[in-house]
Amino acid sequence: MRILIIEDDIGLNRSITDKLNSSGYQTDVAENLKDGEYYISIRNYDLVITSFLLSDGSGLDIVSQIKSKSPRTAVIIISSKTDSKSEIDSLKSGADDYLKKPLDFDVLLARIEARLRFGGSNLIEIDDLVINPDEEKITYKGQEIELKGKPFEVLTHLARHKEQIVSKEQLLDAIWEEPELVTPNVIEVAINQIRQKMDKPLNIATIETVRRRGYRFCYPKGS
């Protein structure tokens, strides 16, 4: 499970990150609205925690962007405001929960677990192809496909952005924890594994190479 934290209080940001990492969650960290919007544009999250007030705007401004991209992504607003209007405004903006500062980290963790349980299915269903990101499982016409690890994540990311051309750099940023430490050829290796382990045996095509630009999910068009 991947969570984005948008909080400009560096100490609080670090405390939330440490708590979530120790509980087994993967986290990305942004300290302002602009960086948060960047992460949302390149990655998919199970949950986003954002401060009500940020140095460059309101955390409420990013809620619609999150929900339009992935309606099942849960959003928790954290705020030092104690008035009921701020809480109401947050929930009306599309946020799923509202917590007041100072945070009780055990309560925060419990709220996160609850929201992820209620978040619904993340299944990607395209004709006969079903991708289940939560279980790292792919089925085609009821047949399970053995594709795991980074190739699975690459396929899932492209499927979530079908009809879009995604560059190697965007794939690296979205999937690898430290993209600056790996070379772009790891994407080619992952794509090749998808084609060898999945496309070739099933006689389908799921990924199109767009010369000099990147890759595009093409199933079922290319099947």
How would you characterize this protein structure?
The protein has eight helices and 13 strands. It is an alpha/beta fold. The chain has two domains: 117 residues, Response regulator (Rossmann fold); 94 residues, Winged helix-like DNA-binding domain superfamily/Winged helix DNA-binding domain (Arc Repressor Mutant, subunit A, Orthogonal Bundle). It has a five-stranded parallel β-sheet, sandwiched between helices. Strands 8-9-10-11 form a four-stranded antiparallel β-sheet, covered by helices on one side. A two-stranded antiparallel ribbon has the order 4-5. A hairpin with a 2-residue loop joins β10 and β11. It is elongated and about 60 Å long. This is Homeostatic response regulator transcription factor HsrA. Keywords: DNA-binding, Phosphoprotein, Transcription, Transcription regulation, Two-component regulatory system. InterPro entries: CheY-like_superfamily (IPR011006), OmpR/PhoB-type_DNA-bd (IPR001867), Sig_transdc_resp-reg_receiver (IPR001789), WalR-like (IPR039420), WH-like_DNA-bd_sf (IPR036388). It comes from Helicobacter ibis.
